[in-house]
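Quick question about two entries, pasted in order.
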Amino acid sequence: MIKEIGVGAAGALVVVLLVLGINIMPLVFLAGLLAFLYFFVGNKTPARNFIKAGERGGSSISFSHIGGQETAKKELMEALDFVRDQKLIHKMGIRPLKGILLIGPPGTGKTLLAKAAANYTQSAFLSTSGSEFIEMYAGVGAQRVRQIFREAVKQAEKLKKNSAVIFIDEIDILGGKRGSHSSHLEYDQTLNQLLVEMDGIDGKEKIKILVIAATNRADILDPALVRPGRFDRTVNVDLPDLEGRMQILLLHTRNKPLEEKVDLKAVARETFGFSGAHLESVANEAAILAMRDASDALGEQHFSEAIEKVMMGERLERRPDEEQLWRIAVHETGHALVSEEPRPGSVSSITTTSRGRALGYMRQTPEKDSYLYTKEYLEGQMAVLLAGSKAEEMVLGNRSTGASKDFQQVVKLARQIITSGMSSLGVICMENIPGKILYESMQGLIKEQEARVEETLKNYMGIIRDIAGVLVKHEKINGDFLREKMAAVKGEARSA
């Protein structure tokens, strides 16, 4: 109401001044300047504009809602006990905990852990992002840092809590090494203000403040930010292992009907390298697929399709012509045969369905969660990658550009073997080795695996054509079908 009256009065004043013949251009310029300062500077600085909506106040997320991060949860809870038990802290003369830094890949649950930390300590919870502090106007970022600390105290008092948690996601944007932004000192001023505010946290204050930050680029953070006395604890939030993935899937499928034969452990085994966010998406996509099929419950086929969708993307409508489709089928069959030969059961499915940038693909089932790799394993993966183009060459007489991404991965694996000291060069320094020697060594490793692949595929030339024909007709087969065909060939060879 007041705003409308003000606009009306301003309009009436302009009309009166025009009638009196007074030049109003200076007043228009002044009004425009004030409007600019209000909307583009004044409106940007209040805390309510950069603290995420709905993130003020307490958090309803608890550690029991988070699966697959047992080590991170245990480490975080031990650190948070210092915040909960203030009497014991004063008795033992312990300096109050000021900051906890969560480090890990995207989608691993860092934000959920921060919310659970607020719930665990019965604190008010405020959430923001490092990018929200950076503006083109000098001093705005520093002002926002001051405001969020004041807002934390205000929210804690409003909720009648004696502590508050400030969560800053992607802190690497705000806390990068000073001097790295030579064209913009606003970054450094903002970081300096954050350092000052964290230094000002005192355990004797009525409202205790804890800063929790998250990043996947800890290597670029300013040393002054991560030193003891500021971020006192660093918690690694890694990708979940097999048991962790199983826990996450159980959490995300507890409200979904599952068929009795669905084996979530098998799903967890096939999703090595997936984050918690990926697994939530798998469960959600499986439910969507079941709904599309008018199924009453989620089945194995829905989870299999969901995994492929999360890994590769949505199915594409494009369909290659018959000649190209035959080549794709031969290519993918070559991958599958060389994968299955040394490690039976490794192939989950083969398809000529286009997803993302892939015209077709062969999906492997990891034998186990591996974090260290032997030379034999890396050579085996090189052989699988080379098998697609080799199958094209042996069946069709030439290669295609479809193997370019495979070759990039092969070169990367060959380099990994050399840098790990597992090649004939022994232990080396990559910076000092001549380029010609490096090239020759990599070519030697690749040619050795090409010969191995050719020898393997010679025994399955008939199967390659048979399976490729099935793929052209039905688009997709599972690993069991492939293994039945291979077993038949081996049985015939033994009989002969």
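Here is the second entry:
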Amino acid sequence: MSKEIEAIATDIVECAYLVHKHFGPGLLESAYQACHAHELRKRGRVVLTELKLPIIYDGQEFEQGYRIDELVDNLVIIENKSVDNVHPIHLAQLITYLKLKNIKLGFLINWNVKLIKNGIQRVVHGLEESPNKFIKKP
């Protein structure tokens, strides 16, 4: 990963810690998302939220159903959840967004955990990284 993407990743994790430290578990996903995006913007990051992600099939563009929770500096996707348990479908959703947008790095953040470090998954698509990065691969 480039130094630029790693700097974004660091900001994402640090901002998640700040927001979670303030609220803890129990809020709606949308509340965490708004506060997290705000913290990232305070650091100078460009954050788009609820970004429509069309799919192309048979030469046609369809805007049915896909929305990226947070796109940071057009380089990293964040999928926010506030659930009791993260399921494989949540990870598959993020991987689909990474593929459709042709982005290499994403984070799946489950805010409904006692310790936020247990709720953050770094997901890399299409690149090899060192095994000590806690990477989840499909």
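Reply: The domain at 3-128 is CATH 3.40.1350 (Trna Endonuclease; Chain: A, domain 1). The first strand starts at residue 47 and ends at 52. Hope that helps.
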